Each structure stands twice: as C-alpha cells, then as structure tokens.
Amino acid sequence: MQHLVRGCFRGEGYRFATGAFDIARACGWERVARLGSNENPYPPSPLAFARATEALASANRYPDERMGSLVEALEGAFGDYAFVTGAGMDGIIETVIRALIDHGDRVAISTPTFSFYGIATRAQGGILHPVPRNADFTIDGSRIVEESRDAKITFLCTPNNPTGNATPPGVIEEICEEIEGMLFLDNAYVEFSGIDYMPLVRRFDNLIIGRTFSKAYALAGLRVGFACVPAWFEPVFRRAQTPFALNAVSAAAAMGALADTDHVRRIVDHVTAWRKRFAEEIPFPVLPSDANFVLIDVAPMKGDEAVEALARRGVVVRSAAGFPQLGDHYIRVSIGDDWENERFLQETGSL
Ligand SMILES: *Cc1c(COP(=O)(O)O)cnc(C)c1O
Question: Which domain, by its residues, includes 75?
Fold first, then answer.
C-alpha cells in the first residue's frame, strides 16, 4: 500500500532522541542521565499541578475555543499583544505554514537549525530554501534578506537549536524592515537568554514570535505553545487551526506555570550556573550558548560515535549529525539536574 503514501512521508521523519536511551537501558543502567531533548529536568510547578487537576473535573466539556483565560494570563505576563495558542510550538508552526503556504510557495530557513520547519513545509507542498549561517553560526542579516526575497515565510531560531547562540534584536529589526514575507522567530529557549524580542511585534506587521511551555516552564509532556502575532494575523491563524488544538487540562497547567515566576527563575539560574561550568570543564570546544543546552565539537570523533559511547555509560545526549549544514562532529547536550550534569562531566572526561 506504500504507493498511496505522499512522497514527503516516505523517507525519514522527525528524529527522536530515543535510540541512545534504549542503548543505556540495554547496558543495564538503572538511572540514566537524560540530556538529549532539552527538557526541563525538574517537575512542573505545584501551581501547574493544582490547576490541571482542577481542570480535569470539567474534561467532559470541549475547551474554550479561544483559550480566553490562557490568552488573558499571557497578556498579564507579557503585555498587551495578540496571542494565539496551540498544541506545542510545533502545532503553532504547523498552523502558520498551513495558513500561508500554498503548493510551490517558498520558505526560507536559517540553517543549521530545528528540523520541524522543513518537515512541516514539505508536508504542505512548500519549497524549502536553506540559508546557511556564518561559519561561527552568527546571522548575516543582509544575506537572510537577500535569500528570503521570494519566500512567504522565513524561519529564524533564536537562541538557535542546535548551535545555542542568540541573534541580537537589531539584526531581527533589519530583517523585518527589508523582507516582504513573514519572519517566524522561534523563541523556544528565550527565557535562558535574558533577551526580550516581543516589543518588536508592535513595530512590524510581518513578525511572529513562537514560544513554548516545554522548556523553561517544564511542561513538555503537556504540549502547550503560543505565539505573539501581529493583530491582522490572529483571525487568519484561528481559521487555519485544527479546532480545539490545545486541550483544557494543558491550558490550565500552563496558567499555573505562568503564575509561578519563582519556579521559572530557579531553573534559569540553575541553567546559567551550569552553562558556565560546562564551558569551563568540558574537555572539548563548547560553543557559547544562550539556551539550556550546549553544542560541543567532539572532533576527531563523530557525533554519532560519542553519543553511542556515552549511552553505554548511561548518559544520553543528542548527536547533531542529523542537522543539515552542520557537520558530523558535534553533540548537543542539555543541562540536566546536578546528578545528570556531574555524570556527563565524569564520562565525557574519558571519551
Ligand atoms: C523544543 C522546540 C520547539 C518545540 O516546542 P514544543 O512546544 O514542545 O512543540 C520548537 N522550536 C525549537 C527550536 C525547539 O527546540
């Protein structure tokens, strides 16, 4: 029956970081250091638990279609912007592409970067145009502008997954001023950077900022994303979105997580302190990071080899070999809890 399947779904899909975990378990490790998926190593805020539990009691009803309470909470936390919500930022990305991309439309992507922009673009029949970063992984704004000329959407991730570095807001401004299509700024890791890009949305009607509760807010398993969008785009987004994409329990948990600012601050402080230690103590070149992970150059080893060797020692990290335009000699390591990070430092010392 394979002939029925669309070409874009016959090859490989999204790469999950599960292989290394299976190796670690097969090697008999009871407790594995899970540093492969940039998750928060700590459980969600007790406020998120409380709100989610409460919401379960009305789970027989469909959720509020506009997610009014969550949107209000986002306005309270971030200011008077237009917000949309979805099932993870991945759900937001998919809806934005669905809203704007017709068969044959072009989508520019600043690479190396997160793979889902490409997967979702191809699924919609769009044509991908990769725009490589500079050799040090910084962004050349004028090159992005030049190469986004015919693109309806340009995706730029800051801080970037997997390189970890953030792009200065000035460069984002320059791009928004010059391009004719939309800029989707992926801010999945922005809480760890100390940069606030949101005010730019007031100035540019072609800028969308994607955010997630999966990283700093510790709700990856509940799949909550949101975006700060120009006012004209909000109704467009709603028309393109799957009805009731975000469930009521997850939305309630997100409101609890949003209210617990101390919880977020603690994880950000933890990450910042460990990021510094990683940069100092890892015996390989570590790229400067503004996120909750670091990219490490393990040459002359291959990333895949390092991942397998570490997995056998009970430490799961991610090979960056699957990121196009990056090279095969990097691993991406999330900042975990104290025990996990110590385990990584211990094992990486003897690679
Ligand atoms: C984790 C991640 C996301 C996806 O977040 P979800 O809200 O869990 O779908 C989006 N973009 C980047 C760059 C990420 O690393």
Answer: 46-259
Number of domains in the chain: 2
Q: What is the CATH number of the domain that holds 287?
A: 3.90.1150.10
Helix-helix angle 303-312:18-26, to 10 degrees: 40
Question: What are the tens digits of pLDDT across the range 99-120?
Answer: 999 999 999 999 999 999 999 9
The residue with tokens 């997997």 is 162
| CA gap 69, 197 in Å, rounded | 23
pLDDT of 350: 86
Over residues 146-177, the pLDDT tens digits come to 999 999 999 999 999 999 999 999 999 999 99
pLDDT at 229 over 70: yes
Nearest to 160 by CA among 145, 144, 146: 144
Ligand 1 pocket mutation, candidates 92, 165, 215, 217, criterion most atoms within 8 A of CB: 215
The answer on pLDDT for 97 being more than 80 is: yes
Distance 90 CA to ligand 1 centre (A): 6
Statement to judge: residues 109 and 230 lie in one domain:
yes
Pocket of ligand 1 (CB under 6 A): 38, 88-90, 114, 157, 161, 186, 188, 212, 214, 220, 225
**Cα 299 to ligand 1 centre (Å):** 27
Residue found by looking up tokens 């700024």 in the block: 185
Atom of ligand 1 lying closest to residue 214 CA:
8
Measured in Å, residue 89 CA sits from the centre of ligand 1 at: 6
Site to probe by mutation for ligand 1, drawn from 92, 114, 167, 213 as the one with most ligand atoms within 8 Å of Cβ, is: 114
Residues 6+ apart with CB under 8 A from 338: none
pLDDT attached to residue 227:
98
**Could you tell me the CATH number of the domain that includes residue 88?**
3.40.640.10
Pick the residue whose CA is nearest to atom 1 on ligand 1.
188
Ligand 1 centroid – CA 188 distance (Å): 6
In the block, which residue shows the tokens 């309630």?
Answer: 252
Amino acid at 347: E
Clarify whether residues 266 and 254 are in a common domain. no
